[in-house]
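In the previous chapter we treated chains in isolation. Here, by contrast, the input contains three separate entities that must be folded as one system, with a combined length of 1009 residues.
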Amino acid sequence: MNWSLKNVLLFAGMGVLLILVGTMQSWNVALAILNMCLISAVMALGVNIQWGYAGLFNAGVMGFTALGGLAAIVISVAPVPAAWDAGGARAILGLLAGLATIAGGIWLWKKLRVSKTARIWLTALLAVSGYGLMRLILDPAVDAIEAVEPALTGFLGGFGLPIMFSWIVGGLFAAIVAWAIGKVALGLRSDYLAIATLGISEIIIYFLKNEDWLTRGVKNVNGLPRPVPYEIDLQGALWLHDLAAWVGIPVVEASSLIVKLNYAALFLVVLVAIFWLSERALKSPWGRMMRAIRDNEIAAGAMGKNVTGRHLQVFVLGSAVIGIAGAMLATLDGQFTPASYQPLRFTFLVWVMVIVGGSGNNLGSILGGFVIWFFWIEAEPIGLALMNFVTSGMALDSPLRLHLLENAAHTRLMTMGLVLLLVLRFSPRGLIPEVKR
Amino acid sequence: MTYLAGEGMCGGYGGVDILHQCSIGVDKGEVAVVVGPNGAGKSTAMKAVFGMLELREGQVTMDGQDISHLKPEQRVQLGMGFVPQSANVFTSMTVEENLEMGAFIRRDDISETMSGVYELFPVLREKRRQLAGELSGGQRQQVAVGRALMTQPKVLMLDEPTAGVSPMVMDELFDRIIEIARTGIAILMVEQNARQALSIADRGYVLVQGRNRYTDTGTALLANIEVRKAFLGG
Amino acid sequence: MLIDLLNALALIGNFVVVPGIAYGSQLALGALGVTMVYAVLRFSNFAHGETMSFGAMVTILVTWALQAHGFGLGPLPTALLALPVGMIVTIGLCLGTDRLIYRYYREKKAVPVTYLIVSVGVLFFLSGLIRFIIGPKDQVFADGERFIMKARAFKEMTGLDQGLAIKTSQGITVITAVVIVALLFWFLNRTRTGKSMRAYSDNEDLALLSGINPERVVMITWIITGALAAIAGTLYGLDKGYKPFTYLGLVLPIFASAIVGGVGNPLGAIAGGFVIAFSELLVTFAYKRVVGYLTPGDWVPDGLVQLLSTDYKLAVSFFILVIVLLIKPTGIFSGKTL
């Protein structure tokens, strides 16, 4: 770990910014930003593992995040017995049929010793008939499940386990999907990998938006159970009243702050743990080999290193971390909203975090996560203030002024773009550059 | 005075010199061949003459002019033609389009030059609408040479033109090269097939480790016992 | 019996063939822009969707100005008058971003991934700029006759139950696409400059040796790409309505079209565009009524007989892309290899 003065100052600077927000806007806002910063930092760490260690451009961050959110539902929501009775078993059977088709297709493709044309036709035949079978089993099951009180449930529900457990499961879901994608896409050129991951994450999001029987689709799943106390419960506690009086803030606000601090503590633990593990991995012989491969893939391959296998490891690990962050995000939000997973906000914003923070450096990615998220959120009020200033000389109802004020929010997209372009051009190694060992 | 001459050339890629006081040259209408063992710096010497290498020492002159500081594109304008060893045709374009691209720097009517090339390589006229990538190795080399001839160069430099072609094709290629030389063009050629190349050479340079080892006419080198033992397999 | 067959054909025509040809043309024009940048500059330009959006935006603004002053084009959309301005401004944008941004990386010989990340930066900036200028909402700018052939008129003409409608925007899309493609192919195959671009894309070193000026080739590429983006963006906006955020979603089908057809190959971009468009429509089409027409008696299937629900449209293009990458990565027309 590089506790140079510069790094300490950078993080201290970040702290100062948050304190400023706390004093000038509100402490609730500051803590909300802090929590999102922590989650963003975990996401950036995941992306950095893929990019910094192996030079892989993953444009599907959004999809893995969403899988983490899925895990949050699947683990924590209470099961819906009526739905399970109606179609649960058949749904599972249908999914298994689908998986069997895929497995069968892969086996056929790889193992069957016939001509290429025959292989294509046979695999296609298997795929089509397997898909048909799956739909035959699945469709009525899905309809039955979704018919169970659609306004309230209309889905299978989850396992009703503590939600923090979903953080690990989120990582697991992401890892499994990453393994499948990696097997298929990792032999491709970096551009193609980006397009492939972008596409896969789009499919994942579609799946989550449409398979109501699993996720309630766009009806969302609200009221996810919490790992921290509810504000209402806290407000009944005597010790909180005393504390609030002593600090001099209303009880309601105090309860909200305590809840956020609880989350922050949990997230911080996860962040530190993942950071520590990543640093250990980076400094280990495995990490050195990864970087050797990244720096000269052809030479490494010639020396007998299994480049694709290593890439797969890194891809899976990085995606798992992203999945964990996704589960944390859904926990913080308290709900699962498939429509909120936008590529601009997740995939590309996280990339700006990694690049600006320092690609290839774990500490840099964390810093990047903090800095960029902070400016992404604060860009709205700052942009608005700026627009107010710019239009202060204009008539109150001039269409130009109204237009500028209305669209001030979009300047943050422009700002992010400029930041990325400027950093790439003038400071490509980022705020905390990779340490060359 | 030699029409094209690289004299006392020292240089290499990165910090290490490959060429040490190397000198090669060719006159109009002559065929000069550069041979030597693998790693002798033959291709490097030619690339230095073409301007693809920074010379630490030495100079390159053409028709009395010092061209050492000119970029390859500029030397092409002055009348140099270069046929690289590999990737020397536009595989996704037709034979005729390849020739057209060869003449890119010319703004005048190129049809006469093109018929000249077709006369030299009749096979190309037959296949002129075919994609260069679909031709056999020997035919591709013909396209590559034809492409370089389209600028009506005064000097034609070939980097291992017979690499990977069958002996019969090689013979035919060498015949054509002699024909080209007879039209007054100076030919500078690096070759791996030393014996056959030297048999058509007016001038031969044997390079070893970036230095001139033997310089003489082709016939004389072929008759030289030491040269024969060391490089021509006795 | 014949009537049933004709009805089925009309149904497919109305919901698959006509929209497929229009959408395929739009994708083809978009894919052409992407494939040309890939062929010459050798990187995947993720910002192309936003460039299309930008071109459409400029055209819309000029269209509004024209409409406000009472100019029109009769039955044709006024936007066609405004399109040349949109093209010129978009070309300016492309040349400007190249000069200010991409050229630096060419000089440094950066790896393709770097360009891709840079294009993401451009994407961000353009996204914000467009929304800032025109706002994020739906914009209406189409005018003139809406239909070349109305469904009801068709039914009256043919006496069938099924109507077949052809929108003006669809007709314009196809005609424009045909004209543009013809022009582009003439340029690439019959002019010296066009051939030099193909040569540069084929073998950069040899092209430089032949005296081809790389900066000129790059400039012409951006000019063509900018023009194509403006046209494609405007046509798409005329046909489906203009909303800034939809263009980011087009990046995937456009890249899929370019890659499936063979990236770097203009012919491939066009073929790919239609393959993707028709696949999306065919796979998500509800065949229920077609089956109803084609089967004897009153037998109508229970479900919609859809291969995939309509929401999965975008997933289809991606799925095809993956299949192609696995089986024949160079695409239908063998574009640049991986």
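The longest strand of chain C covers residues 147-149. The first helix of chain C runs from residue 2 to 41. Compare these points with the single-chain example from earlier in the chapter.
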